[in-house]
């Protein structure tokens, strides 16, 4: 009886696939977070917050009348 193992005492390990799924999900979350942090904002108020001098007015001379 030296080779007998009680099935209630032994433990079974989960398959390696579930571990890799959790690792892949964690990597995906980190990549999405980095993309969100470093993507420029599409909000024009946030991007045009710096106020500079207005350009000088350009005067346009009227064209000579065509005969």
Distance between the termini: 120 Å
Q: What is the string of SSEs from the N terminus onward?
A: HH
Mean pLDDT reading: 76
How can the largest sheet be summarized? none
Relative helix content: 40-55%
| Unreliable stretches covering 5 or more consecutive residues | none
Q: What percentage of the residues does DSSP assign to strands (E)?
A: under 5%
Please count the helical segments. Answer: 2
Going by helix content, strand content and strand pairing, the class is mainly alpha
**Radius of gyration from the alpha-carbon trace, in angstroms:** 34 Å
Number of strands: 0
* Global outline: rod-shaped
Describe this structure in words.
The protein is mainly α. Helices cover 40% and strands 0% of the residues. It starts with 15 loop residues before the first helix and ends in a 20-residue tail after the last helix. The relative contact order is 0.05.
How is the secondary structure organized here?
Layout: H1 16-38, H2 44-47
Question: Any descriptors?
Answer:
rod-shaped; 67 residues; mainly alpha
Compact overview of the structure:
The chain is built from 2 helices and no strands. With 67 residues, the chain is mostly helical.
């Amino acid at each position: 009886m030296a080779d007998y193992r009680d099935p209630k005492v032994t433990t079974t390990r989960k398959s390696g696939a579930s571990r890799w799924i959790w690792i892949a999900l964690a990597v995906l979350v980190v990549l999405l977070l980095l993309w969100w942090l470093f993507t420029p904002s599409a909000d024009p108020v946030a991007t045009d917050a710096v106020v500079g001098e207005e350009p000088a007015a350009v005067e346009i001379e009227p064209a000579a009348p065509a005969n």
